Amino acid sequence: MSAPLDGGVAAPAIRARGVRKVFCAGGREVVALDGIDLDVAPGEFVCLLGPSGCGKSTLLNAVAGFSLPSSGELTALGKPVTGPGPERAMVFQEYALFPWMTVERNIAFGLEIAGAAPERQREVVDALLAKLGLGDFRDRYPKDLSGGMRQRVAIARVLAIDSPMLLMDEPFGALDALTRRSLQDELLRIWAELKKTIVFVTHGIEESIYLADRVVVMTYRPGTVKRIVPVGLPRPRDPSSAEFNALKREVTALVMEEQARHQADEAHATAD
Amino acid sequence: MASVPATRLFRSLVVPVTLLLCWEGISRAGWVTPLILPSPTAVAIRWVAYLTPLEPFDAAAGPWWRWALSGELPHDVFTSLLRIVVGFVIGAGLALPLGLVMGARPLVYELFNPVLQVLRPIPPIAYIPLAILWFGLGNPPAFFLISLGAFFPVLMNTIAGVRAVDSIYLRAARNLGAREGTLFWRVMIPAAMPYILTGVRVGIGVAFIVVIVAEMIAVNTGLGYRILEAREYFWSDKVIAGMFTIGLCGLGIDLGMSRLNNRLLRWHRGVEG
User: What is the pLDDT of residues A227-240, one digit of tens each?
Assistant: First the structure.
């Protein structure tokens, strides 16, 4: 359960101050993130947007605890991030389902290792299979599912542990446009119902405006927060509306500036 | 549709039947002496004699199935298979935990790898003199040689399997709250299972080769011993009958392994349930 929101001054679900991440690549230091300041409110849906190499996945992995910041302060749900944990559940672009487990066992995994009773596991799995339209796939293995179905299972797997926060790393990036749209709508439905805090990494400009309360546009290397664009549009949003397209133009202009730096950098690297 | 299995059966029999007919023809024509190459019928007769019980059935001595299996061949097959099982269980039983730890812990890998790299290319057969010096005659040297033969394939494949575990599964499991023990048992081992089973399959194959060799030097039972014994009497037909039995046993083991593989890896890409 997430903390009650009383009076609107709730502590942020994620708080980053001066987060910096330095990698060593080929003997050279690469600053992936520099001076990231960001607050995400409980129950908020935030998209991290930027070209490849802007550090958006690095930031998400830092929040998830897979790769801690080199310096700076990073807290999630009021506690400093020191490692991975089920209260910050991750959905991966590559699904990361366990291929040796059936859909049912994949969804129940988090509960099972936490020591939940089999009846409880079954109850939760039943509810999630129904919620995500996976009823017929209970005993299938991931190899037998389409990409969209696999990502539904991955979402069910993190919902099963009732994490207050979902971290999503380009979760719909590998899906076709129609499947992506239906999963986006499903995610919004789940988010509205369960009041999760969602941090969603994407390089899809339209996707970010379609989904997020706020779009965090990041700069290309080192990754910093270039601008935070609030999306004030009511949901369900219409990507063909004038307001949507005005925002899309604004965000596209911001992203393209960074994309230009990315390309210049690549051209430079090739010339070396 | 019904003709498809029949056609396939027919195709699979064309070459063996032709070969057998040619062989029979060559023998009947007297082109080679039966000592060099006995005819297939002679081998078959010998094989049946080898298979059937030596004593007539006596209800007082025990149940009929015990009598039916009292021939020389069932006894040899049982003895050889038992040696394979014992040797394999020892070899794989040592290789599996070592391989898991070496795969998962780079420090352990660095400690053990140099020794293993030197020992690995030595064929188990080369250990025969030492095996006899250390363990004498009888089953112990055979177990030693067989376990040695099974050890390295299982070890190398287990190490490779653990190292090839996609880190995304580990990250996902950690993210869902798994600790080290859970990661090891519920993620690393199942993820490495395709490799481990490949190692087991190769290891059993090597054990099967080694058991025949071991039986030719250290013991006086089993299929390997029987072939050597028949050679001393110039019973070429029995040599070939023994070889054929070895072939059948190998085929049986491989089919069994293949079924086990499909059962354990039914989740794996390319495996049909």
Answer: 999 998 998 899 99
Chain A interface test: which of B171, B175, B180 (most A C-beta within 10 Å): B175
> Whole domain around residue B13: which residue ranges?
1-32
Q: B171: distance to nearest CA of chain A, Å?
A: 7
- Whether residue A90 and residue B268 make contact (CB cut-off 8 A), yes or no, is no
The CATH label, of 3.40.50.10580, 3.90.190.20, 3.40.50.1110, 3.40.50.300, for the domain at A18-87+165-272 is: 3.40.50.300
**Interchain pair B176, A141: CB under 8 A:** no
**pTM higher than 0.80, yes or no?**
yes
Quote ipTM for the complex: 0.88
A173-178: which pairs have CB atoms within 8 A and are 24 or more residues apart? A173/A93, A173/A202, A173/A203, A173/A204, A174/A93, A174/A94, A174/A147, A175/A147, A175/A148, A175/A151
> Which residues are CB-contacts of B210 (< 8 A; sequence separation ≥ 6)?
B87, B124, B125, B145, B146, B148, B149
Partners of B193 on chain A (C-beta within 8 Å) are: 100
Decide if B187 touches A, using CB distance below 8 A: yes
Residue A241 CA to residue A20 CA, distance in Å, equals: 38
pLDDT in tens, B167-182: 999 999 999 999 989 9
- Residues from chain B that touch A67, judged by Cβ atoms under 8 A, are none
The DSSP string of A125-150 is: HHHHHHHTT-GGGTT--GGGS-HHHH
